[in-house]
Amino acid sequence: MGDLLNAVILGIIEGLTEFLPVSSSGHMILANRLLDIASDDQRIITFEIVIQLAAILAIALIYRQRIANLFGLSRQTESVGSINPMSRSSKRKLNLIHVALGIVPALLLAFLLRDIIKGEGFNQAPVLVSLVVGGIYMIAAEWLVKSGRIRTVSETMDDITYKQAFLIGLLQCLSLWPGYSRSGSTIAGGMLVGTSYKAAADFSFLMAIPIMMAASGYELLDNYKYIEGDNLMFFIVGFLVSFVVAWIVIVLFLKYIQKVKLTHFAIYRFVLAALFWIFVMR
Fold it and tell me: Any transmembrane segments, and where (predicted)?
């Protein structure tokens, strides 16, 4: 029963945080500490990969029309999950080259630094620092746009240029520091290179599908043997919970995106880091 409760709790945390700019990896590391779960337990490592795949499946289904467009399987220019249809008059159109430019830098660097990241980054102290630094980065990006120092030139995802996609990809490398947040680095990064908040979020979520599939799939090849027998229900419960929660979070975030600013998420990150440091780490 304790295992299933942990599966539900971790599934909820993964679904809530994977696509919001608050860092799912940071939350999972801190949650493991609070639940007294060994982060280096291979079964837990495998479980975290599985529930991350569930979150990926949720966003892939929500973005199914856009994915079909990318592969030329649909002529319809429809936005994510039929939420806020994009302009059909856009002169440019996002394609697979944009996606490749956005994901290759982080994938390459993650492969080269895999051992360093897994060895040093997954400790509580670096995560708390990363939460704070990432929050400052997000506030700075939003302030620069609001103050007019950076002009928004790409209102929709279809307006994003190859140069912008590549620069967003480079800034996504910041998320290799656990606690920084992949969506935080890319959404703020998009705004820094001239995309709107909505366009940056759309592109961030779309990029998440191949980059997380590649990363999770690679890790699962080393750990799939832990999904067996007595552990099976633990994995199934976590997968289902993560999928449902991630679906709800993505839909709500896209619906209310203009009302929830990056600064709000940054403040949450500061509070979380402070509370964890005061009440758990000390």
Answer: 44-63, 94-113, 125-145, 165-183, 203-221, 233-256, 262-280
* Contact status, residue 206 vs residue 66, Cβ threshold 8 Å: yes
- Alpha-helical regions (H) of 22-160: 24-34, 42-62, 64-70, 96-112, 114-116, 124-146
Task: List, run by run, the mean pLDDT of 10-residue segments along the chain (282 residues).
Answer: 86 95 90 83 87 94 92 61 42 88 94 74 81 97 96 95 97 92 96 96 95 85 79 92 96 91 96 90 70
DSSP string for 188-237: HHHHHTTB-HHHHHHHHHHHHHHHHHHHHHHHHHHHGGGS-GGGHHHHHH
Q: What is the phi-psi region of residue 260: left when phi exceeds 0, alpha when psi lies from -120 to 50, beta otherwise? A: beta
Name the token pair of 65. 């029309």
Its pTM stands at: 0.88
- Cα torsion 173, 179, 182, 188: sign: negative
d(CA 242, CA 218): 20
